[in-house]
């Protein structure tokens, strides 16, 4: 999970340090920082599905962007963290410091867009995010999304990053279970082509309705 508004505290996770999300009710959601920084079991589901120019939204430290480049696939990571962009470039991937809701190079021409590692939650409204992502892909393009397991549904929460200062900003995040993606996609003008599981990770491919 990587989003724009978290400042230096969130960079701890990008650098591989332990951190978590604290919900307003006190619940704690651990962030999978180990997966962000190193190749992870299940990544091949996403990598194998990317056969053309790919936009990695919320690329974080760039493991997927760089892996695609290593396969000879044109890939661009976008992330609102300067640290993420620096780390991606250090891995040999291309990345821009950019909010996905701002102008993105190649709008309307990307063959694939990735929303991995919980990035479907960026901005706290998956329907809005998917509508924006649909603007970025080609007419015959697709969106590859990582999801929560079945039974999780759609959830929006106010959260803040921990550890961090007492006055660290709260922001909205969302989680989408594989059982909820069809409805969320339909509201964004998309449909689910397939869903699949690899170990404990769940994925879906979305295309225009």
Automatic annotation (TrEMBL):
**Taxon lineage:** Bacteria, Bacillati, Actinomycetota, Actinomycetes, Pseudonocardiales
Organism of origin = Amycolatopsis pretoriensis
Sorted UniProt keywords: Methyltransferase, Transferase
Q: Which InterPro entries match?
A: Methyltransf_11, SAM-dependent_MTases_sf
What is a biological process (GO) this protein takes part in?
A: methylation
**Domain Methyltransferase type: from-to ranges:** 55-95
Q: Work out whether the entry's keyword set contains Transferase.
A: yes
Q: What GO MF annotations does this protein's record show?
A: S-adenosylmethionine-dependent methyltransferase activity
Q: Superkingdom, according to UniProt?
A: Bacteria
User: What name has this protein been given in UniProt?
Assistant: Methyltransferase domain-containing protein
